[in-house]
Structures are given as C-alpha cells and as structure tokens.
Amino acid sequence: MAKKKESTLTSWEDVNLQLKNLADLEIKKRTLENQETEETNKIKEKFMEQTNAVMDEITAIEKDIILFAEQNRSEFTKKRSKKLTFGTISFRSTRKISVKNSASAIATLKQMNMDEYIRTAESIDKEALLALSDNELAPLSKAGINVTRKDKITVEPDIVQIVSDNQTAA
After folding, report:
1. What's this model's pTM, rounded to 2 decimal places?
2. Are 153 and 62 in contact (CB under 8 A)?
3. pLDDT at 155 over 70
4. CA–CA separation, 121 and 18 (whole Å)
5. Residues 6+ apart with CB under 8 A from 96
6. Are 153 and 64 in contact (CB under 8 A)?
7. Per residue in 106-137, is it b (16+ CB within 10 Å) or e — as a string?
8. Fewest beta carbons within 10 Å, which of 2, 49, 112, 155?
9. Alpha carbon separation from 170 to 131, 158, 165, 166 (Å, rounded)
C-alpha cells in the first residue's frame, strides 16, 4: 500500500503563518500584474502616439495628392489612371441610387412591372437598379429615384517598389 503523504505543517500556528505567506504572495502577484498592465499601457500609448502621427501624415499626403489630381483632372480624360514609379492615381466612375420616398418608388416600380427590382422586404434593390441604363432610370425620377454620378479617386502606393528601392539604396 502506498504511503499517505503527510503535511510539513505541524500546528495551527504553522498553518496560520502559511496563510499569511499565501496572502503576501497574492499581494505580490497582484502588484506584479498591475505593473505589467501599467507598462503595457505605456508601451501602447507610446506606439499609439507614433501611429497617430504617421496616420496624420498619411492623410495629409493623400489629401494633397487628391487635390493635385483634381487640379489636373484634364490629364485623366483619355486614360482614367496614371501609373507613376511609386504608385497609381486613378479616377473611377461610380454610380449610386438614392431614393427620397421608398413607398412611392416601390409603387412606381410595381406599376411598371419591375418587381424584380424590389426586395422581398419591400425595399428597393439599388444594386439591380444600377444595372439599368440611364434611359430606363429616367422615368423613375418621378418616384424620387435618382442616380448620382461622381468620380472616386483612389491612391495606391506601390509598396513593393518602394521596399525594393529602399533595399537597393541601403
């Protein structure tokens, strides 16, 4: 038969001292956890400040590039994109359906037997309407369905090129 393991404590006074020791260790553990949290927060704050500064700079540069592209829009009439060494600037035409009065627009679509452009929940399927030509959409303006067009500028830095240039320079 295996021997029963016996406690190293010999009295209730020993137990009481070990309880004190246990409490001290718990306090030490909590103190260390608090220090860890504080240090982690300091590191996060330090990097958050640096990241925010970089993000602000990115935003400023993108706004400046977009402003320059808009000022030179005439260069984008034949080709909608301009490929540069370190990236591409492009104007993309987008379409978006706006509906002023859904109930009226739904009624008009139903009258025109255009039920496939109405979602089952009786909402307008704007994506399907975008597939229509301008001539097909024109009569729907009476119901408050209008198409707005705008150019959306995208700025895409060529990160691979920049990395390889930085490695070549180093």
Report:
1. 0.47
2. no
3. no
4. 68
5. 126, 130, 147, 148, 150
6. no
7. bebbeeeebeebbeeeeebbbeebeebeeeeb
8. 2
9. 51, 19, 9, 6
Distance between CA 69 and CA 3 in Å, rounded? 86
Question: Where are any strands of DSSP class E within the chain?
Answer: 81-84, 87-99, 145-157
* CB contact at 8 A, 149 and 95: yes
For residue 118, what are the β-bridge partners? 124
Sheet holding 87-99, edge to edge: 81-84, 87-99, 145-157
C-alpha distance from residue 80 to each of 36, 73, 77, 95 (Å): 53, 9, 6, 16
Say which DSSP state 10 is in: -
One-letter amino acid at 98 equals S
CA–CA distance, 107 with 1 (Å, rounded to integer): 89
Evaluated on CA atoms 27, 32, 36, 41, the torsion sign reads: positive
| β-sheet bridge partners, residue 124 | 118
How many residues does the structure list for the chain? 170
